[in-house]
Design goal:
This protein has 304 residues and is an alpha/beta fold. The protein has 11 helices and 14 strands. Helix content is 32%, strand content 28%. The strands form 3 sheets. Strands 1, 2, 3, 4, 6, 7, 8 and 9 form an 8-stranded mixed beta sheet that branches.
């Protein structure tokens, strides 16, 4: 069977202008699946961590102030100018607004690429304020689509916008609508009707999307719920990134409230405390209010 050739045009940003370990992890996982062109919208002085990443064809690490789509444009132009764009079966636009992947990304891509469509992605957004569109943190284009003249024109017209809403409307939403207007078929891994990736990322992971939006993490305590999906070392990398970006650490015990007491002759035998997060409900059971016995989490489920 012919091996699928993939090119990942990766858009990155770091407020401190560094190559974070979570970025290295993501790029390393992508390098197992294809070639990478990395463009970051920030000045980066130390590029040492990038040296160990295979299949990294090109990097541009300087502020351009056109955000992710500006990075996509620059990566696309480099590939096009070097006449390699046509060498790939699939070209992906990917950014670092997510943590992951938390499980086999290759399996997910093979599934998406086998559906007989020309544009694919991880999640579509279906909310009232915007037309349905593929979320731009992970978009795939077939060779035919990636080399289409209208895609080239679209990316060449990317420029700085004054606010995020304009970026979403002019580029993220417009790209999907444009592809539909030209008659191309689209499919995604998850139809995120309620934008669950921002509200309940555990639900999206369970749906088969191996990523979590960084903005979905409201406190470091939430990050610990990623433990079933990855290694302890990667969890620690995520926590380090989150702390650097100012995410609050809310102690588990301060978040727990008394839920239930089993009394015998006026003595509390079993004491249960509970804490809620967008991931689910956590319980702790104590003997005589002092001796911890068990801890468990009931994940939230949202019905369609």
């Amino acid at each position: 069977m012919k091996k699928t050739k993939r090119l990942f045009l990766f858009a990155g940003y770091d407020k401190d202008g560094i190559i974070d370990d979570t970025l290295v992890y993501y790029l390393t996982e992508l390098s197992k699946l294809g070639d990478i062109v990395l463009v970051m919208d920030c000045d980066v002085a130390d590029k040492t961590k990038l040296k160990g990443i295979n299949n990294l064809l090109h990097t541009e690490l300087a502020r351009h102030n056109e955000y992710d789509f500006g990075s996509y444009k620059r990566g696309y132009n480099w590939a096009r100018n070097n006449k390699i764009l046509n060498n790939y079966d699939w070209v992906y636009l990917v950014n670092d607004s997510v943590y992951g992947p938390f499980f086999d990304l290759g399996h997910v891509l093979c599934d998406l690429e086998s559906r007989g469509v020309d544009m694919t992605g991880m999640c579509s957004s279906e909310i009232n304020s915007f037309p349905v569109h593929i979320q731009s943190w992970f978009i795939g284009m077939s060779k035919k689509l990636a080399n289409a003249d209208f895609i080239n024109r679209f990316l060449q017209n990317v420029k700085h916008q004054e606010n995020k809403a304009l970026i979403v409307l002019k580029y993220e939403v417009r790209m999907t609508q444009l592809v539909k207007e030209y008659g191309y078929k689209i499919s995604v891994a998850s139809n995120d009707k309620g934008v669950m990736i921002y509200k309940n990322p555990n639900l999206v992971l369970n749906a088969g999307v191996p990523f979590v939006k960084k903005t979905a993490m409201t406190q470091i305590y939430d990050i610990e719920f990623l433990a079933p999906y990855t290694t302890e070392s990667f969890i620690q990398q995520i926590i380090s990134y989150a702390k650097r970006y100012g995410m609050p650490y809310i102690c588990r015990h301060s978040a727990y409230k008394e839920h239930f007491n089993f009394m015998l002759l006026g003595i509390p035998i079993f004491h249960v405390t509970v804490a809620d997060s967008h991931w689910g409900t956590s319980y702790k059971v104590y003997l005589f209010k002092k001796i911890p016995l068990i801890k468990f989490v009931r994940n939230k489920r949202v019905q369609d």
